[in-house]
Write a structure and sequence with these properties.
Number of strands: 0
Radius of gyration: 29 Å
Largest sheet: none
Number of domains: 1
Helix content: over 70%
Strand content: under 5%
Distance between the termini: 23 Å
């Protein structure tokens, strides 16, 4: 923590200007110190939220990578089945076609899940922004009530 009590009013005002923190020229040293400390706490809270969002995004990215890998495996199986069906006569061709249809359904389901993960990732980003705004509003309310 920065020891701001040893700084002068001018130095505190300069720090406010540098950090683009609003203040009034007639504020006392104690008020400036309190304002800067409140701003430190607000920034710390925002950093924590950002870290949590980054962690959530990383988790979603890992899940997305797993789904892509499953999708690639499914495509390989589908291609393998398609190639096998060309070389297999009669009844085996019917079974291969059934397996191909099954893999296509799995492939389709995986694509849907991928889309759902992308949508969820977008929603998390939106919720993070909303939460960030609410925190700012509530901090403003708390400050005005003090």
């Amino acid at each position: 923590m920065i020891d701001r009590k040893k700084k002068t009013v001018k130095q505190l005002q300069a720090e406010c200007r540098k950090r683009k923190v609003g203040f009034m020229m007639n504020w006392t040293k104690a008020a400036l110190v309190k304002r800067l400390e409140d701003e430190d706490n607000r920034e710390e809270g925002m950093l924590e939220l950002k870290k949590q969002l980054d962690k959530d995004r990383d988790d979603k990215d890992i899940e997305l990578a797993k789904l892509k890998k499953q999708l690639a495996t499914s495509q390989k199986k589908s291609n393998t089945l398609r190639n096998a069906a060309e070389n297999v006569p009669g009844q085996m061709l019917v079974r291969a076609q059934a397996n191909l249809d099954k893999e296509k359904k799995i492939f389709s389901d995986l694509e849907k899940r991928l889309d759902d993960v992308r949508i969820e990732k977008s929603k998390l980003s939106d919720e993070w922004v909303i939460s960030k705004r609410k925190i700012a509003e509530l901090e403003t309310l708390v400050k005005s009530l003090k």
